[in-house]
Every structure is written in structure tokens, then in C-alpha cells.
Write a structure and sequence with these properties.
Helices cover 70% and strands 0% of the residues. It is mainly alpha-helical and 69 residues long. The protein has one domain: 434 Repressor (Amino-terminal Domain), CATH 1.10.260.40. Helix 2 packs across helix 3.
């Protein structure tokens, strides 16, 4: 699970429905991204980071690095 993503989303008070609407994707698709059941594209990572007002690396780099081990 992408814990940083979920924690920041919740801290901002955003629901998975809100995120899905902003990204123009379905709620199940967004939930799958957040729970690492779908591969996150770079383009989607940028969009998510923009909504959460952060940089993609802050959200996703540690998780990506861990997977590469």
C-alpha cells in the first residue's frame, strides 16, 4: 500500500471519490492505485501530486526504491 499517498490524502480531507473525480478515473481504479493493485504511470503520479500540492518524489520515491531491491 502506498502509505504516504493515503496518509496525505486523508490529512487533506480528501476522499477516494474526490481523488477519482479530480483524476477523471473511477473510484475503484483510484483505490487500486492507492493499494498497489495497479501500476502507477509517471503521468498519473504527477496528476496526483498536483492535486495534493506536493512533488511526485515525496509521495512515490521511497516506495519505488523499495520495489527495486
Amino acid at each position: 500500500m502506498n502509505l504516504k499517498l493515503k496518509q496525505l490524502r486523508q490529512k487533506k480531507g480528501y476522499t477516494t471519490t474526490y481523488m477519482a473525480e479530480q483524476l477523471k478515473i473511477s473510484k475503484p481504479f483510484y483505490s487500486q492505485l492507492e493499494n498497489d493493485k495497479r501500476t502507477l504511470s509517471y503521468k498519473m503520479a504527477i496528476k496526483i501530486a498536483d492535486i495534493l500540492k506536493t512533488k511526485p518524489d515525496k509521495l512515490f520515491y521511497d516506495e519505488f526504491k523499495e520495489r527495486m531491491k
